[in-house]
């Protein structure tokens, strides 16, 4: 039976339990780790290189220099834009969390009618491209938008009151955009806190107010703080809102600095690199604090087994007040933004909301976009991008997660590597891949493949989260039973693990698909004329003032994506995978 | 002390279909008593407890605590839970992770000001209670660093700090491992005796209930089937359900030829023959009855023993041993009398094995006739 001795072909290489290994490491772990290193490391190295070298005219590296960093530290721009970013990110986090706490509390802890329909917010918001969402708020809050119209009538003013192209405009738009995510994550905070913590307080003689202050709020606090940091990070590294709202109003943040440095003629890659590295460091530090806090939050949310039961507060007549709040927030988050996009898509030119405009309603914009050949290329590219990124990420992370969860020797490093891109803001990932591609001997520049690769790396961590959660649900004994039935490890993976993890993988696939077609930051730096995607097309149409066709394209695309998002949520709910 | 009358609370699922709950429970508890609600899961025991606590609002019924009505469905009286003079130990313990041991136990005194204690009095009070449950060395420890047994003690201490007139315990031992469970069981009983607090204890574990209680109410499907001391419940169950739920029992179904009065002995015709049985209630001949006898009360005799000993003729049956299980302090035999299985428990030492022919004797005084439960 024991063939170990005779099978020793070379130093360290041996067969054990029918599996080949190298110094105890499974070759699979080594191969996967190698793939991850090849995917991530060169781009990171080139990003660092770019920030330390002069840029030649053709984009290649020139002499070594640290002048970009010196310029950064000595110039006013960096500090000023850091301050902008800080206010913007903090403001957005506060707006998002305030809305999120309200929604989550109403949905999870009260008996408000129709509260579960709030999930629609999360579903639709995952389907809307960020560019379109930001643009919809520019339409709403812009000079000719209904909000200014209304204010002018109410206040009797002759010119628009609000200027959305400002820091506060960025805060409002980004804050509302992140509200559904904040709601989703806070729901799980409220849901996973054992209600008997509160009941024990009531049974100690505390009234509702004392219980909320001493127990509910205190227990939720670490979770809420962790989310403040998370949304702070997401806003800090966001690109769409700063580019569309901030730049026209003269407000710059770090992400738009990177973009502008690259768009300069000639491109200032060194400066973009230095900005990227700074952004990377800041996000890294913030993520560290986030992890610390969320670990503490989890300790507070231990679901204590048998006695666990959720609790709903009977609000009596007050439930119609909370219902009205839900309706209002629903309109602010989804109703008004989609409403205005729809309106704009139906008129030949946008000149505010009025009854007269109703007579001009037409489907011409939809007909125009349906005929435009370039749009069809863009649609094809986008779907190819989403499908490719998702198809690469889902099985790859499933395999990595399985090896890591089952504690194969060295597999923890797969988990670490695959999660590492989390600290790369999308725009930095775009910048890193741009540098790598410019310096490669073969022509990847401007191809769809380059966008796919960068997107794949960027969304590996998200894929990892879903796969990990999916694998954790499979009890080890199911696999052990397969082994005891005489199956080899690879057979067990194919016959037992794959079918069981399939729902999680499908959910993971859909999520990566949705986020990779939604984003602007990576393709805006990497896309060439032949590799346009919908998000970029929308971005360009807005810049070029083709507003009505943009709205028609946006509506159609959102409808399509929302359908996919519904499938995603249905699957995730059915198989108990939560979004984090 | 506590008087619960016609408590009714029915749950319904989201689509409105009626579910479980408690359907008209009535009981009274005396001062200083440890009263147990015992039953399988879903029998309504926890609902009853939570209704007394005020965590659930019953649809019907009256609850009186120390002569005060704390709930009355008809008059609409419903004292909020935090104003009821009740302490509670939760199944999950519900020890707050953001407070240390002392603060957890002191919380009831912190949120109520009407006890009139100053902070040093609170400190000494809480310290003495923590000493009572054996946590005096852990006073300043973060509560997240406590073991399961320690959390259990802390939950108990917290429920007692306010010196409530009633203590509620919701399956407090179910999250502990077996050894610790037995230890905490006697500890709980000791603490209840020492403090003299009236307590309601909810459990599904019959041996726990027998060991700890002054009186037990056995519940099934939202109804109380029997209330009595552990001895009464074990020795004189009034229904098949209670007889089967409390401990292992042998049951033979059969019929009567004549009406029987309470306290009489009469023959019940069963598939294995007539069994002379004790009747604790009046039964008419038309009713289906069963006779139960505990495994430890069946006498088992080998052929030789039967030769040498006096031969009873009544309640004696020839049986075949099917299996023997050695349980340490006792031997358990599974035997067959005709088609019926009879379980016997006896002190070890008999040389009986599978396949042997034996004689079983059911002492009439140890038998009990019961009316058959509705199928």
Keywords:
heterodimer; A: about 575 residues; two-stranded antiparallel sheet; 24 helices; 4 strands; about 70% helix; B: about 375 residues; alpha+beta; five-stranded antiparallel sheet; 9 helices; about 25% helix; about 35% strand
List the topology elements.
The complex is a heterodimer of chains A (580) and B (375).
Chain A (H helix, E strand, L loop, with lengths): L12 E4 L2 E4 L4 H26 E3 L5 E4 L2 H8 L1 H34 L9 H9 L2 H12 L4 H10 L11 H26 L2 H9 L4 H29 L3 H7 L7 H10 L5 H32 L18 H28 L8 H4 L5 H8 L1 H33 L6 H8 L6 H13 L9 H25 L3 H9 L4 H30 L2 H6 L7 H10 L3 H28 L6
Helix pairs in contact in A: 1-12, 1-17, 1-18, 3-7, 3-9, 4-7, 4-24, 5-7, 5-10, 5-13, 5-23, 7-9, 7-10, 8-9, 9-12, 11-12, 12-18, 13-24, 15-24, 16-17, 16-19, 16-21, 18-19, 19-21, 20-21, 21-24, 23-24
Chain B lengths: L1 E11 L5 E12 L4 E5 L6 H9 L6 E6 L2 E5 L4 E2 L7 E4 L11 H11 L7 H14 L15 H14 L4 E5 L7 H18 L2 E6 L2 H7 L2 E6 L2 E6 L1 H6 L4 H6 L4 E5 L10 E6 L2 E6 L10 E5 L5 E4 H6 L7 E11 L4 E7 L2 E7 L10 E5 L6 E4 L4
Parallel strand pairs in B: 3-9, 3-10, 7-8, 8-9
Antiparallel strand pairs in B: 1-2, 1-4, 4-5, 5-6, 10-11, 12-15, 13-14, 15-21, 16-20, 17-18, 17-20, 18-19
Helix pairs in contact in B: 2-3, 2-4, 3-4
């Amino acid at each position: 039976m024991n063939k170990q001795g005779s099978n020793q072909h070379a130093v360290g290489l041996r067969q054990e339990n029918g599996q080949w290994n190298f110094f105890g490491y499974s070759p699979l772990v080594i191969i996967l780790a190698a793939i991850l290193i090849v995917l991530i490391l060169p781009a990171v190295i080139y990003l660092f290189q770019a920030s330390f070298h002069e840029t030649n005219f053709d984009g290649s590296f020139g002499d070594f220099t640290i002048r970009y960093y010196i310029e950064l530290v000595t110039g006013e721009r960096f500090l000023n834009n850091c301050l902008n970013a800080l206010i913007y990110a903090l403001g957005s986090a506060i707006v998002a969390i305030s809305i999120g706490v309200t929604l989550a509390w109403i949905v999870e802890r009260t008996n408000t009618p129709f509260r579960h329909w709030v999930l629609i917010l999360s579903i639709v918001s995952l389907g809307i491209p960020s560019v379109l969402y930001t643009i919809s708020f520019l339409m709403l809050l812009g000079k000719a938008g209904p909000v200014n119209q209304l204010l002018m009538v109410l206040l009797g003013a002759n010119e628009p009151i609000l200027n959305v192209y400002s820091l506060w405009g960025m805060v409002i738009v980004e804050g509302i955009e992140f509200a559904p995510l904040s709601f989703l994550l806070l729901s799980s905070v409220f849901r996973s806190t054992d209600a008997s913590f509160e009941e024990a307080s009531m049974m100690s003689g505390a009234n509702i107010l004392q219980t909320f202050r001493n127990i509910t709020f205190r227990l939720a606090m670490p979770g809420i703080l962790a989310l403040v940091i998370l949304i702070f990070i997401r806003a800090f590294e966001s690109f769409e809102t700063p580019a569309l709202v901030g730049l026209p109003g003269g407000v710059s943040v770090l992400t738009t600095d990177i973009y502008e440095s690259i768009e300069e003629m000639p491109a200032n890659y060194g400066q973009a690199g230095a900005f990227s590295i700074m952004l990377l460091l800041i996000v890294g530090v913030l993520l560290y604090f986030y992890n610390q806090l969320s670990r503490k939050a989890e300790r507070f949310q231990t679901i204590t087994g048998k006695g666990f039961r959720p609790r709903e507060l009977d609000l009596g007549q007050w439930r119609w007040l909370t219902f009205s709040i839900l309706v209002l927030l629903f309109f602010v988050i989804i109703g008004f933004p989609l409403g205005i996009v729809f309106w704009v898509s139906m008129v030949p030119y946008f000149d505010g909301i009025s009854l007269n405009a109703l007579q001009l309603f037409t489907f011409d914009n939809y007909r125009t976009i349906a005929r435009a050949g370039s749009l069809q290329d863009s649609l094809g590219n986008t779907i190819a991008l989403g499908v490719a990124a998702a198809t690469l990420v889902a099985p790859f992370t499933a395999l990595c997660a399985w090896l890591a969860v089952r504690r194969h020797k060295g597999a923890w490093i797969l988990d670490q590597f695959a999660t590492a891109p989390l600290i790369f803001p999308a725009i930095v990932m775009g910048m890193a891949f741009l540098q790598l591609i410019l310096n490669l001997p073969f022509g990847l520049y401007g191809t769809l493949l380059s966008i796919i690769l960068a997107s794949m790396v960027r969304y590996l961590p998200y894929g990892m989260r879903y796969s990990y959660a999916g694998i954790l649900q499979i009890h080890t004994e199911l696999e052990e039973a397969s082994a005891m039935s005489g199956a080899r490890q690879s057979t067990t993976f194919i016959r037992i693990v794959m079918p069981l993890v399939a729902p999680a993988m499908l959910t993971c696939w859909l999520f990566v698909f949705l986020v990779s077609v939604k984003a602007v930051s990576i393709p805006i730096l990497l896309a060439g004329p032949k590799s346009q995607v919908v998000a970029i097309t929308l971005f360009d149409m807005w810049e070029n003032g083709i507003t009505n066709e943009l709205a028609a394209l946006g509506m159609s695309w959102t409808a399509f994506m929302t359908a996919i998002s519904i499938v995603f949520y249905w699957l995730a709910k059915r198989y108990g995978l939560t979004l984090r | 002390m506590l008087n619960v009358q016609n408590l009714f609370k029915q749950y319904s699922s989201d689509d409105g279909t009626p579910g479980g709950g408690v359907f008209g429970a009535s009981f009274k508890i005396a001062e200083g008593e440890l009263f147990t609600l015992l039953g399988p899961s879903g029998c309504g025991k926890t609902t009853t407890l939570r209704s007394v606590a005020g965590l659930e609002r019953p649809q019907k019924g009256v609850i009186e605590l120390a002569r005060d009505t704390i709930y009355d469905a008809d008059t609409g009286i419903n004292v909020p839970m935090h104003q009821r003079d009740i302490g509670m130990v939760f199944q999950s313990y519900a020890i707050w992770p953001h407070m240390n041991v002392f603060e957890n136990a002191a919380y009831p005194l912190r949120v109520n000001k009407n006890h009139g204690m100053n902070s040093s009095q609170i400190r000494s009070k809480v310290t003495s209670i923590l000493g009572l449950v054996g946590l005096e060395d852990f006073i300043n420890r973060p509560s997240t660093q406590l073991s399961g047994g320690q959390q259990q003690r802390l939950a108990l201490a917290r429920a007692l700090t306010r010196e409530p007139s009633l203590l509620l315990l919701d399956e407090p031992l179910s999250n502990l491992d077996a050894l610790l469970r037995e230890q905490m069981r006697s500890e709980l009983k000791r603490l209840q005796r020492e403090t003299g607090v009236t307590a309601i204890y909810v459990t599904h574990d019959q041996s726990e209930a027998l060991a700890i209680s002054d009186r037990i109410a056995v519940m099934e499907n939202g109804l109380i089937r029997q209330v009595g001391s552990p001895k009464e419940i074990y020795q004189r169950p009034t229904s098949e359900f209670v007889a089967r739920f409390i401990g292992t029992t042998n049951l033979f179904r059969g019929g009567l030829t004549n009406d029987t009065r309470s306290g009489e002995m009469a023959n019940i015709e069963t598939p294995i023959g007539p069994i002379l049985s004790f009747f604790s209630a009046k039964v008419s001949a038309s009713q289906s009855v069963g006779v139960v006898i505990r495994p430890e009360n069946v006498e088992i005799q080998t052929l030789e023993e039967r030769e040498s000993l006096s031969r009873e003729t009544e309640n004696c049956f020839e049986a075949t041993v099917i299996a023997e299980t050695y349980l340490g302090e006792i031997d358990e035999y599974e035997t067959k009398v005709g088609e019926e299985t009879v379980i016997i428990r006896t002190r070890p030492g008999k040389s009986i094995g599978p396949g042997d022919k034996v004689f079983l004797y059911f002492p009439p005084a140890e038998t009990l006739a019961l009316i058959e439960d509705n199928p």
